[in-house]
C-alpha cells in the first residue's frame, strides 16, 4: 500500500497523511506490541511518528522518556530508521528544573532524546509549549544551531497561540533564522473554533503544516462514550465526558453515525477523514493500541468523503 506523501510546511520533510501518536508506547502499550504496531505502520505505507521526551511521565512510576526509549529499541532492532519521519518535542516539565526552552536546556534535552531514540538525528524537533521567558530569537537560534550540527532536520511548534506563532515566524524572517515548519494544535470535529478562527488562516498564509493532536477528541468521536454510564467505564472516559458529552457532542455523534453508515465505515474513521479534508492539515495525529485499531486508521486515511457528507458533519458540529 502506498500513500501520497505531503510536504511539511516549506521543509524538505515529506510525511504520510496520518501521524502515529507515540504517547502510548511504553504506557498503555507494552514493548512487544509497540514493535508490532510500528512495523505494521511502516508496512501499511505510513512513515510519520510523533512522540515527546515527557511521554509518559504522568504514569505512576514513570520518569519521562519511556516512549522514546521504546522507539529507540525498535529502530535498533528493525533497521528502519530511513523509512521513518521521526518527530519529538522538548519543553514540558521533566523534573529537576528540566523545563522550558532555555538554549542550554534545549541542547541538553536534544542529546538526551537522541540517546533514547538511538539515532543521530531527529527529523522534526518541536517546542512542546511556548516559553515567554526566553526571547524567540534565542530559541530559534538554538534550533538553528542543532540543524547546522545535523542533529535536527526541521522544527515545529506545539500549543502556540496564533499571535505567538505569527511573532515567531516574523522573528525568523527578520533575523534570518530557521522557522517553525509545523504546528501541533488541538483540532477535531468538536474542537473547531480556536483553530479555524485564528490558527488555520495563519498556517495557510505562511505555509505551515498542521499536525493536529486529539483528532478523535480523546476517544469521544469513536462513539464509545454516549452516556455517563459509558464514561465511567474508564478513567479517560470520565475525563472526556465533562468536555464533550453534551447536546452538541451527541449531535456530532449522530452525524458521524449517519455518514459512517452511508459510506460503510466506522465513526472514528469518518472523523479522521473529515479532519484530513481541512485546509492546512498535513497529517492528523492518532494513536492505536492494537493492530485492529491501527488498521482502522489506515482505512480512515483511504476514506474519501463527498461534499454531502462534509456538509452533514459541518452542520452538526457548528458552534451554536
Question: Rough shape?
Answer: globular
- Largest sheet strand order: 9-8-7-6-5-4-3-10
- Unreliable stretches (pLDDT < 50, length at least 5) are none
Number of strands: 10
For the record, give the distance between the C-alpha atoms at the N and C termini, rounded to a whole number. 41 Å
Q: What structural category characterises the helix and strand content?
A: alpha/beta
Strand content: 5-15%
CATH topology of the domain at 11-184: TIM Barrel
CA-atom Rg in angstroms: 19 Å
Assign the CATH architecture of the domain at 11-184: Alpha-Beta Barrel
Q: Name the average pLDDT.
A: 95
Helix amount: 40-55%
The CATH homologous superfamily of the domain at 11-184 is called NADP-dependent oxidoreductase domain
CATH class wording of the domain at 11-184: Alpha Beta
Total helical elements: 12
Biggest sheet features: 8 strands, parallel
Q: Write down the secondary-structure element order.
A: EEEHEHEHEHEHEHEHHHHEHH
What's the topology here?
Layout: E1 6-7, E2 14-15, E3 19-21, H1 31-43, E4 48-50, H2 66-78, E5 85-90, H3 103-117, E6 122-127, H4 136-148, E7 152-158, H5 162-175, E8 180-184, H6 193-206, E9 209-210, H7 228-231, H8 235-244, H9 247-263, H10 267-276, E10 285-286, H11 291-302, H12 307-317
Parallel strand pairs: 3-4, 3-10, 4-5, 5-6, 6-7, 7-8, 8-9
Antiparallel strand pairs: 1-2
Helix pairs in contact: 1-2, 2-3, 5-6, 9-10, 9-12, 10-11
Description:
- The chain is of the alpha/beta class and 320 residues long.
- It has a domain at 11-184: NADP-dependent oxidoreductase domain (TIM Barrel).
- The chain is 46% helix and 12% strand.
- It has 12 helices and 10 strands.
- It has helices spanning 31-43, 66-78, 103-117, 136-148, 162-175, 193-206, 228-231, 235-244, 247-263, 267-276, 291-302, 307-317; strands at residues 6-7, 14-15, 19-21, 48-50, 85-90, 122-127, 152-158, 180-184, 209-210, 285-286.
- The strands form 2 sheets. An 8-stranded parallel sheet has the order 9-8-7-6-5-4-3-10, with helices on one face. A two-stranded antiparallel ribbon has the order 1-2.
- Strand 5, helix 3 and strand 6 form a beta-alpha-beta unit.
- Helix 5 (162-175) packs parallel to helix 6 (193-206), helix 9 (247-263) crosses helix 10 (267-276) and helix 9 runs antiparallel to helix 12.
- The protein is globular, with a radius of gyration of 19 Å.
Amino acid at each position: 500500500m502506498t500513500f501520497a506523501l505531503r510536504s511539511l510546511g516549506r521543509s524538505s520533510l515529506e510525511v504520510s497523511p496520518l501521524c502515529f501518536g507515540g504517547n502510548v508506547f511504553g504506557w498503555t502499550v507494552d514493548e512487544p506490541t509497540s514493535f508490532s504496531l510500528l512495523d505494521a505502520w511502516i508496512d501499511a505505507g505510513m512513515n510519520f511518528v510523533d512522540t515527546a521526551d515527557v511521554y509518559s511521565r504522568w504514569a505512576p512510576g514513570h520518569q519521562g522518556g519511556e516512549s522514546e526509549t521504546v522507539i529507540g529499541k525498535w529502530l535498533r532492532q528493525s533497521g528502519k530508521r530511513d523509512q521513518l519521519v521521526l518527530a519529538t518535542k522538548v519543553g514540558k516539565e521533566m523534573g529537576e528544573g528540566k523545563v522550558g526552552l532555555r538554549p542550554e536546556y534545549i541542547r541538553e534535552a536534544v542529546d538526551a532524546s537522541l540517546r533514547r531514540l538511538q539515532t543521530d538525528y531527529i527529523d522534526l524537533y518541536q517546542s512542546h509549549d511556548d516559553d515567554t521567558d526566553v526571547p524567540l530569537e534565542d530559541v530559534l537560534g538554538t534550533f538553528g544551531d542543532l540543524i547546522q550540527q545535523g542533529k535536527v532536520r526541521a522544527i515545529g511548534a506545539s500549543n502556540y497561540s496564533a499571535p505567538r506563532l505569527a511573532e515567531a515566524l516574523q522573528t525568523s524572517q527578520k533575523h534570518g533564522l530557521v522557522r517553525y515548519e509545523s504546528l501541533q494544535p488541538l483540532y477535531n470535529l468538536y474542537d473547531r473554533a480556536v483553530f479555524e478562527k485564528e490558527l488555520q488562516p495563519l498556517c495557510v498564509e505562511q505555509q505551515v503544516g498542521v499536525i493536529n493532536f486529539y483528532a478523535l477528541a480523546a476517544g469521544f468521536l469513536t462513539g464509545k462514550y454516549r452516556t455517563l454510564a459509558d464514561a465511567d467505564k474508564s478513567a479517560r472516559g470520565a475525563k472526556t465526558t465533562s468536555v464533550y458529552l453534551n447536546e452538541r457532542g451527541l449531535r456530532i455523534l449522530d452525524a458521524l453515525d449517519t455518514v459512517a453508515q452511508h459510506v460503510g465505515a466506522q465513526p472514528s474513521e469518518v472523523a479522521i477523514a473529515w479532519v484530513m479534508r481541512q485546509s492546512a492539515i498535513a497529517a492528523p495525529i492518532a494513536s492505536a493500541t492494537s493492530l485492529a485499531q491501527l488498521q482502522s486508521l489506515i482505512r480512515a486515511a483511504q476514506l474519501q468523503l463527498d461534499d454531502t457528507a462534509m456538509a452533514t458533519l459541518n452542520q452538526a458540529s457548528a458552534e451554536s
